[in-house]
Design a protein that fits this description.
With 81 residues, the chain is mainly β. It is built from no helices and four strands. The chain has one domain. The strands form two sheets. The protein has a two-stranded antiparallel sheet with strand order 1-2.
Amino acid sequence: MKVKARNIIGTSDFSETLRIITPQKPLKPEAPVTIWSPDDVIIRWIEPDDAGSPITGYSVFIRQSDALTYSQELLNCDMQN
């Protein structure tokens, strides 16, 4: 973006150019890693680039035993990475 000023006498030269970057959707996370313990399964992933707008949450989907269906985990996931 650049701008010019104008009055009744005339128009100025252009300002220096300013690059504007608008936020986009975040990049996809890397594949998660699971850590098994006697009582829990911990799922971790590397936070992806936010593309200019902070990431506000994650949705975790677990593949079911039929190997085709995924269900969103809402009960036990605290959504922290």
